[in-house]
Specification:
The chain has 127 residues and is α/β, with parallel strands linked by helices. The chain has a single domain, classed as Response regulator (Rossmann fold). It contains 5 helices and 5 strands. Strands 2-1-3-4-5 form a 5-stranded parallel β-sheet, sandwiched between helices. The longest helix is centred in the C-terminal third of the chain and has 13 residues. The termini are far apart. The model has no long low-confidence stretch (mean pLDDT 87).
């Protein structure tokens, strides 16, 4: 099985390490970025399969990171975790596949969100 690369973006070491701890034992390669600038640098240098983003980062202000992702033509699902994840998902451009995962969530919930991200959005049915 190929190891999937996931970028964890948070505002503090504690929040990102909590998520990393939940993913221990999963066949994943994790990159950690504290802040948007570091995240952009990682995305320039490495191929990622998904982003796990602390929803608190975009609670008040949508990220320029989304524009960067779209401008580079990257097709990355965004898993928003934590308080306000569902509201934060509304700030993700519709071209990106957003998966909200509000607190509290378990390791199984997070693994399920990653599997959904790998599958992509459900097809839209026309009536």
């Amino acid at each position: 099985m190929q190891r999937r690369r996931i970028l964890l973006i948070g505002t503090s070491k504690e929040s990102v390490f909590q998520i990393r701890t939940l993913l221990e034992g999963q066949p994943l390669e994790l990159e950690i970025a504290l802040g948007e600038d570091v995240a952009r640098t990682v995305l320039r240098e490495r191929v990622m399969h998904a982003i796990i983003l602390d929803a608190a980062i975009i609670a008040s202000d949508p990220l320029e990171l989304f524009e960067f992702i779209l401008d580079r033509g990257l097709d990355l699902p965004v898993i928003l975790v934590g308080e306000g994840a569902e509201a934060a998902a509304a700030g993700v451009p519709p071209e990106l596949f957003a998966i909200p995962l509000p607190k509290p969530f378990t390791a199984q919930d997070l693994a399920g969100a990653i599997r959904r991200a790998e599958r992509g959005p459900a097809p839209v049915r026309n009536s």
